[in-house]
Amino acid sequence: MNFIFDVDDTLYDLTQPLKNAIKTLWGNQFSLDVEQLFTLTRKHGDALFPKIMRGEISLDDAGALRVCMAMEEMGYTIDQKEADRFQQCYRQSEYKISLSAEMRNLLDFLKDQHQTVGILTNGLTAHQQKKIDSLKLIQWVEKENIFISEAIHASKPDLKAFDHVEKAMDLNKSETYYIGDSPQHDVKGAIQAGWHMIFLNRRHRDVTTLPKRPDFIVTSESELSKLIKKITMIR
Length: 235
Fold this sequence. Notes:
By secondary structure, the protein is an alpha/beta fold. It is 52% helix and 11% strand. Strand 4, helix 9 and strand 5 form a beta-alpha-beta unit.
């Protein structure tokens, strides 16, 4: 079997750096619902992502802008200087992320079972590679099986991104499972590529709005681990 993972909010909980930045910079200054702030920053970040990839805005400028817009939606106003400070604090926290014990155990299992593991993630190469290094994923994923959108010149959900990975790793569609958290990027892309799709729905999104239903939906790392172990045993 082939198991290809997304990185952000799939292999690790993406609220980690957000919580750290809020605590470090703001403490109790604002009465924030972290999950709401996370959802809003993801929404604005996804909208800005194409501009980042086209070089129209820098990663940090986009990060500062998205938190400004998210805070405004939550009824708070922060100026550009404060947004920049938050982004720098967030950036430092982003490179201090770690895998949970559950996810490490799952990757250990896949390695012990000689399953093929890969990564397909959207983003700038240097930025995503630093996260991959922080998570120490090279223990489980061979370097040649790590694919970052900027480096392969295609971003999810573009079919070209999935085709690139498929050809590079010589994958059989019927034996390939993609694990990701984004309905727009991961679910849509993997399904149109003809791969099996495991949707890790950490944020309990409304799955009835999905244009196409993934093969499997799980809401926690524990559920994901049990499912993947079941798949490997059946096959």
